[in-house]
Specification:
single chain; alpha+beta; Herpes Virus-1; 2 domains; 3-stranded antiparallel β-sheet; about 50% helix; elongated; disordered N terminus
């Protein structure tokens, strides 16, 4: 199965850095684990997040980014699906950074020389993906002739230099049970990609075929899922702007009411100090309650925006750079996630923002004389 070529136009260094770093530890992923919502974390990071909330095997816990609930596998966090696509992107980033430094020396020659004095190690001109070694021209020739390594994937070192095309190939995913066997058969019943041996052993009565039969339809469906994302993001941003405006108006209105109350309090001098304090306390409670409501809605809409951005970025990257297997593996979760985002849209964006209104009504001082049960300064009207 052919893998897609990556060049500097497909994956820029900054984009590669962003998608290969864990949002919890902000470091390059270590053993990346993907949740059903497609958000990916280091296995250790998501495990620690679970421990902090006393979550264990069989429990449900929210995704640290979008808060969508997922069930921890019975074997623990190790049982979460590994994101092989991200893992291979990390490999590309590693090779790109490595080549950005000084010219690489031949790994084999360095080993054979064993630090022999006076012997100069030749510069590498190729890299072997299978051996993870840099090879000089002579070693590359031997590598291609030797029976055990002749089928290894070699690429020019120069194609990894910073500023030039990476031209690296994302190797297809291989079966964890049958080494060297490519995952290239899609089981339509189980909605997973397996190797040919696994399909014969475990899925022979299921409907399935080579991933190439499904990939174009899946690619089109993913593209269709992505198309409305920008519009949803625009709507979410507009809702966020309205929420921020309401928060600002509430703050200004409360500040004005506080001034009114203070002025009225000053007019009545120390005689009504206690009543003024009551009103200020009521206003404080109103402000805390309303601003808290606005903040909660703002947090929800920001989480939704982040989910839309993450979904869009992941889909764009996997469509351009993912192998056929990557796309087939991700199709079901991505389709389910798109439906969830659309449902959340109704809740997050379509809901009306409740208007806030509160007025200060001055009291008639004469009517309160001798009536200690009423506030001498005035009352708050509205919600």
């Amino acid at each position: 199965m052919a893998a897609k070529d990556l060049d500097s136009n497909d994956i820029k260094k900054q984009e590669l850095d962003d998608i290969t770093k864990c949002c919890i530890c902000t470091e390059v992923f270590t053993d990346p684990k993907a949740l059903p919502c497609i958000h990916t974390f280091c296995m250790k990071c998501i495990q620690e997040a679970g421990l902090k909330t006393n979550k264990g095997p069989g429990d449900e816990m929210p995704c640290p980014i979008c808060r969508r609930m997922f069930k921890i596998p019975t074997e623990g966090f190790h049982g979460l699906s590994k994101n092989f696509f991200i893992e291979r992107l990390i490999q590309v980033a590693h090779l790109s950074e490595k080549s950005a430094s000084s010219a690489a020396l031949c790994s084999l020659c360095l080993e054979y020389s064993n630090g022999e004095a006076g012997k100069e190690t030749p510069t590498a001109d190729a890299y072997c993906f299978d051996c993870k070694r840099e090879l000089c021209k002579e070693c590359r020739g031997e590598h291609m002739e030797f029976k055990a390594t002749r089928k290894h994937t070699l690429i020019p070192i120069s194609e990894h230099e910073v500023g030039q095309n990476i031209m690296t190939k994302l190797l297809p995913s291989v079966c964890q049970l049958h080494e060297e066997k490519v995952l290239d058969v899609y089981c339509a019943d189980c909605k997973i990609v397996v190797c040919a041996i696994c399909f014969i052993d475990d899925h022979r009565i299921h409907e399935g075929s080579h991933v190439k039969k499904f990939v174009e339809d899946f690619r089109k469906q993913i593209k269709s899922n992505v198309e409305p994302i920008n519009e949803w993001k625009f709507e979410a941003e507009a809702k966020k702007s309205k929420l921020l405006k309401v928060k600002e108006d509430i703050q200004k209105m409360i500040e004005k009411l506080e001034c009114d109350v203070s002025s009225r309090k000053d007019e009545l001098m120390q005689l009504i100090e206690k009543h003024a304090n009551y009103l200020m306390h009521d206003l404080c409670l109103i402000r805390q309650g309303k601003l808290k409501e606005m903040q909660m809605e703002t947090d929800d809409i920001e989480t939704y925006i982040l989910s839309l951005e993450t979904y869009n970025s992941y889909c764009q990257t996997i469509m351009v750079n993912g192998s056929d297997s990557d796309i087939c593996c991700a199709f079901t979760d991505l389709s389910v996630r798109a439906v969830e985002l659309q449902e959340q849209r109704q809740l997050r964006i379509r809901g009306e923002i409740q208007p806030f209104n509160c007025n200060f009504i001055k009291s008639g001082l004469e009517s309160f004389l001798g009536e200690s049960s009423k506030n001498l300064i005035g009352e708050l009207e509205g919600e």
